[in-house]
């Protein structure tokens, strides 16, 4: 303990004994200061400030131009997007219209094709119908005439006066002729002779008719001969003539 204290006392005595000298600062070299009154320094300062001002203006102008270009680019981009949208819509409209037109044309073509086919089918069916009707009418007419012929024959057999009426109608067409010959089948001869007075009454008083039997004739056939020709007054011939006229009428109706 006494040693530590002694040591500290010795150090303090040494510090007190050492004197620090203060040097005179006037002997040091002075620091170089800028003389603001120097024209050269002033010019340098003005040039520096001018450059700084120009640089600031250039930076501002560049920033303004950059902003202007940016805004212009955005506007052009927006305009292009709008134009592109319009072009897309226009293309869609054109495509839709073209598709609609093509669809309409295709639909019209299909419709016209189907209409032509229907018209052709109608014409074919009409032709078939006409041919069928013509055939059917001819068949029906033929059957009807045969039925009429059979009915007339049966009627004449049962009622001989019917045959006499046919002869009378034929004689009216030739009553102006002076001499008339009546030819009938032998089965009808006796009946016609019995009724000759009725036949003579058709003619004027100065005219006569003569009745002859002809076995070459059919049972209900009657021929009337005059100086101007022959008239077929038979039932069969009248039916045939009627059939021809009816057939002409039927064919005229179906044309």
From TrEMBL:
Keywords per UniProt: Bacterial flagellum biogenesis, Bacterial flagellum protein export, Cell projection, Cilium, Flagellum, Protein transport, Transport
Keyword Protein transport: yes
Gene: fliH
NCBIfam families tied to this protein: FliH_bacil (TIGR03825)
Function: Needed for flagellar regrowth and assembly.
Taxonomic superkingdom: Bacteria
Flagellar assembly protein FliH/Type III secretion system HrpE domain boundaries: 115-241
Species the sequence originates in: Heyndrickxia oleronia
GO CC terms in record: cytosol
Pfam families on file: FliH
GO process annotations (BP): bacterial-type flagellum organization; protein transport
Keyword Transport: yes
Signal peptide: none
Name of this chain's protein: Flagellar assembly protein FliH
Family to which the UniProt record says this protein belongs: Belongs to the FliH family.
């Amino acid at each position: 303990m006494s040693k530590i204290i002694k040591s500290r006392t010795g150090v303090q005595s040494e510090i007190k004994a050492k004197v620090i000298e203060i040097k005179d600062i006037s002997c040091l070299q002075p620091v170089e200061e800028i003389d603001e009154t120097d024209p050269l320094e002033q010019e340098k300062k003005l040039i520096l400030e001018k450059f700084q001002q120009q640089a600031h203006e250039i930076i501002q102008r560049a920033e303004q131009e950059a902003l202007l270009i940016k805004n212009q680019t955005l506007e052009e981009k927006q305009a292009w997007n709008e134009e592109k949208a319009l072009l897309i819509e226009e293309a869609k409209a054109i495509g839709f219209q073209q598709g609609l037109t093509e669809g309409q044309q295709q639909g019209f073509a299909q419709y016209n094709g189907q209409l032509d086919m229907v018209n052709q089918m109608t014409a074919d069916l009409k032709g078939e119908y006409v041919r069928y009707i013509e055939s059917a009418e001819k068949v029906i007419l033929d059957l009807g005439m045969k039925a009429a012929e059979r009915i007339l024959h049966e009627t004449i057999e049962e009622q001989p006066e019917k045959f006499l009426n046919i002869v009378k109608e034929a004689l009216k067409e030739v009553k102006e002729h002076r001499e008339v010959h009546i030819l009938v089948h032998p089965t009808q001869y006796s009946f016609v002779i019995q009724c000759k007075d009725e036949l003579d009454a058709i003619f004027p008083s100065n005219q006569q008719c003569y009745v002859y039997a002809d076995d070459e004739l059919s049972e209900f056939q009657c021929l009337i001969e005059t100086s101007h020709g022959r008239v077929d007054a038979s039932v069969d011939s009248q039916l045939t003539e009627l059939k021809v006229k009816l057939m002409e009428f039927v064919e005229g109706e179906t044309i």
